[in-house]
Amino acid sequence: MSSRKDEKTRINRVITRTGDDGHTGLADGSRVAKDHPRIEALGSLDELNSALGVLRAHPLDEDLDRLIENLQQWLFDIGGELAIPATATLTDAELVEIESQADLINAELPPLKEFVLPGGNADAAWCHHCRTVARRAERRLVTLAAEEEVNPVSLAILNRLGDLLFIMARLINLRAETPESQWIRREDR
Length: 189
Prior knowledge:
The protein has helices at residues 37-56, 62-83, 92-107, 122-147, 152-175, and strands at residues 23-25, 31-33. It is mainly α. A two-stranded antiparallel ribbon has the order 1-2. Strand 1 (23-25) and strand 2 form a beta hairpin. Helix 1 packs antiparallel against helix 2 (62-83), helix 3 runs parallel beside helix 5 (152-175) and helix 4 (122-147) runs antiparallel to helix 5. The model has no long low-confidence stretch (mean pLDDT 89).
């Protein structure tokens, strides 16, 4: 078993000054503008991963915490794919796992009678926020995919992730015994 001293250092310098001109380096050595669709997608993934980290900082049930950690790992994998153009790491196995987790969670929930307003307890509200960030990350990846090759599984995973975070927010509210606010038709308000 290796100790931390034996492990390879991946990053030893954070401030490089190489991006001062508005460009950044990809893992393959190429450089692109910081507002390039690839960097926009990477930034949205980073924001989503950070938002999920905030959610995990809350006292969640162990099953949800483990699931979110897996999601964070997969988001980092997608980021790796984007850092090396034309790379595909994630496979249908991860997609099946997300769908399976979504089915398990959804089975615990009562059927929806109306649209749900984001909110409930603080953890569920933050989970809804994560969902909206996931949808933005998905849109950024779609924009990139219109111009360059993107792993179609990664696109599908981001799509499913938005759905999964929605039902996770509902489950958090259910377990906390916090009623969900539902949209009320205009004529009924």
